[in-house]
Every structure is written in structure tokens, then in C-alpha cells.
Amino acid sequence: MTDIESRPSIPLPTDAGGGPAPTPAQEADNAPAASRYGSGNEGYATLVWRRFKRSPMGMIGLILVVLMLVISIFADFFAPMDPKQANLPFAPPDVIAFEDPDGNFSLIPYVYPIGDTGEFDPITFQPLTGLIKDNPTPTGFFVRGHAYKFFWFIPSNIHFFGSTDGRPIQLLGTDKFGRDILSRGIIGSRISLMIALAVVTLTTIVGTLVGITSGYIGGRFDSWVQRFVDFVLAFPQLPLYLALTSLIPVTAPSNVFLTFVIFVMAVLGWAQLSREVRSKTLSLARIDYVRAAIAVGATDSRIITRHILPNVLSHIIVAVTLAIPSVVLLESFLGFLGFAVKPPLISWGLMLQDTGTFSVIGSYPWILSPVVFVLITVFAFNALGDGLRDAIDPY
After folding, report:
1. What residues does CATH 1.10.3720.10 cover in the chain?
2. pLDDT digits 0-9 by tens, 139-174
3. In CATH terms, is domain 66-72+183-392 a member of 1.10.3720.10?
4. From edge to edge, which strands make up the β-sheet containing 154-163?
5. Sign of CA dihedral 337, 341, 344, 346
6. What is the DSSP letter of 139?
7. Rounded to whole angstroms, how far apart are CA atoms 337 and 370?
8. Which residues, including other chains, have CB under 8 Å from residue 172's CB and lie 6 or more apart?
């Protein structure tokens, strides 16, 4: 007898019924869906977040929106230059290179300005421009620069990025007054986003209250409210914006003019949301649990706040994220026409006033940089809104 034949046989594991025990893979397949995909008692917000994470564009939009909000809140810290400091007008953007003046690689980036190289084109005899490597500007993080107030009351002069020797750097060039476009764009994001958030907040509150009240009460009250909503929606908004904003005198303070612009945008922007909320309220008011609440004597305010508003809230959140880019575009357009923000305030629309002539755009194309800020903002909020819409209502 060989060694293999002399070894005792090892019995296979069996289950309770006497058959062979399932393998780990079979146990995973036979496990309940709740244990494989979650606890089974997850809340609505958790399920929405799980679906939202599967959207790459939605996550990109969320990251961009968070970054923009952080940069706008701490705009003075992220702005490398004083937005009011005047240098060379229409200076081209500087170039960042990871090499020292000798051409060797450097971990510390240097800023090389673009200027006259002293050479001439052999055909047109026009002076040639290029990198000036004689005296580059060293850069760094958390450097000292112009003074500002952190959180609007803490004096500070530390900036996230800038030159270490105090010389100006213009990564996006300068405008007609020699002011740094990048710093003005960062500071201007605070005003542009503040206008958008304020307008959307007011329109959401008014539109939601009017829509829910009109749809829930119904009857003659609903008919009169909807005729007023039709009256507001029938106005051509652009001529009305220009007419209303022109009522404020030019000598009015900037905060008064800004408040009036926000008020005008909010007055003309709530009607569409109220119509959407009303249509959802009409369908929700006929659901069984709402009728049951009415039957047991629940008040109208309790039914609206506890039963109808939570079910309408998902649509409102998506509408808000999709309305913000529309307000940003409207503010930029009105600012380009000179009807949104007045100096010394800074906004993206006000910066676009320098692009009023084709000759300026052709000679100094870098003054179109505020358009990039607007496009990034519109893309971020639209991507976030699309991701939320798919996550909240996947079917």
C-alpha cells in the first residue's frame, strides 16, 4: 500500500441538509440584495448621493462649483495682484516656466515677461516679441503681497501664489488701465456669484411659495394667480431690464445700484419656477396620503410643509442649479452693456466692457479672459444640475 492510499480521507464540509457546503462565491451570490448593496434601510439622501457619484460629469461639476465658491469667498487670498494697481496697459500674459535663466530645470517656477527681443523680422522689419530671460521673476506659494482683510476684518498680506520679490506678474495680461486681469477675474467672481446666488434665492422662495399656494388652494384663487403669472411671463425681459436699470442715476452709490439690479432680476425671474412648482403640487394634492391628512383634520400649512414641500424639493434643487448659470450669463450681458455693476465694484460683465471693439480684440485677445470664467461657471453648474436631475429622478 502506498502513502497516498494509507492517508485518511478528509470529509468535505456539508451544510445543514447533508449536502456539500456552498463556496464563498456561491454564498455572495445567494446573499440578500440588501446585504450586497447596502444596509437596506438607507435614507433618500444616501441613495441620491450613491446615484450621483456614478455620474462623472456631475462629480466634475460639483468639484468645480466647490472650488469656485472657495475662491470667491477667499478671493483676496487667491488674487496674486492688487486688482486696482495700474501697470503697463495691455501688457501680454507672462509665461511660467520651470527653468532658470541658464536653461536648467528648476522646481521653483519663474515668470518670464513677453517683450521686445531687440530683433526684427527680415521681411517686414517689424520688431519681434518673445520671452525676456535676462531677469525673470521667481514665484512661490504663500508669499507676501498687497494688504487686504481676511474674512473682511483680519488684516493680512499673505497670498496663495505670487512673486517672491514683489514684482508684478500678469498671468492673463492687463487691461487698458494696466490692471491684472487674473486678479480682477478672481475678485469679480465674488460679485458675479453673489448676484447669481442672491437672485436665485429670492426667485426660489417667491416662486415656491406662489406655486405651492396656488396649486394647493386651486379654484378662483389659482385662476387669478396664474393670470398674473402669465402677465409677468409675457413681458420681454431684456428691454424691461434695460428700462428698469436705467432708472437709477449714474451718481447712485454702487451698493444701491447693485441692490436694485438684484431686485429687478428677482422680480422678473420667479414666474417660471412658480409655474413648474404649481404643476407638481396639483398632482401631489390628489395623492392618497394628502387626502388622508385632510380627512384627519390636518391644517393646510402642515399639509404643505410636511407632505407637499418635501416631494417638490427635489425639483426645486435641480431648478436652482440650472438657474444659476442663466443669471450669470444675464449679469455678464447686462454688465457688458453697462447696466449691471458700476465701478469701483468688479464683475465679469464689467470686465467685458473692454471688448467692445473688434480692433481691441484683434490686437489684445487676452482681454477676452473673463469669457473663460463665465464658461467655466456655466459648465460647472449645468453639469451639477444634470447630475442631480439624473440622481434624484433616475427614471
Report:
1. 66-72+183-392
2. 888 999 888 888 778 888 999 998 888 888 888 988
3. yes
4. 95-99, 105-112, 137-150, 154-163
5. negative
6. E
7. 15
8. 93, 180, 181, 182, 185, 366, 369
pTM of the model: 0.79
- Omega cis (within 30) before 32: no
For the beta carbon of residue 214, count every other beta carbon within 10 angstroms: 24
Q: Which grid coordinates belong to 170?
A: 500678469
Residue pair 347/192 in contact (Cβ under 8 Å)? The answer is: yes
Cell triple for residue 105? 530645470
pLDDT in tens, 105-139: 878 888 887 766 667 777 776 766 667 777 788 88
Instruction: Locate 118 and state its grid cell.
Output: 531687440
Instruction: Count the neighbouring beta carbons within 10 Å of the beta carbon of residue 375.
Output: 12
Eight-state DSSP code of residue 10: P
185 close to 350: Cβ distance less than 8 angstroms: no
Instruction: Give the C-alpha separation, 356 to 81, whole Å.
Output: 25
Cα–Cα distance between 41 and 392 in angstroms, integer?
18
What is the spatial distance between Cα 317 and Cα 26, in angstroms, rounded to a whole number? 42
* Packed helices 56-73 and 369-392: angle between N→C axes, nearest 10 degrees: 130
Residue 376 cell numbers, joined:
467655466
Amino acid at 33: A
Question: Closest Cα to residue 205, out of 356, 64, 42, 320?
Answer: 320
Spatial distance between the Cα atoms of 336 and 349, rounded to a whole number of angstroms: 5
| Cell reading at 16 | 445543514
Half-sphere exposure of 350 (CA within 13 A, CB side): 19
The terminus-to-terminus CA distance of the chain in angstroms comes to 69
CA distance 85 to 106: 30
Give the DSSP H or E segment for 99. Answer: strand 95-99
Which residue is it, cell 488684516? 155
Are the beta carbons of 231 and 301 closer than 8 angstroms?
A: no
Residue 135 in 3-state DSSP?
A: coil
In order, the DSSP letters of 154-178 are: EEEEEEEEEESSS----TT-B-TT-
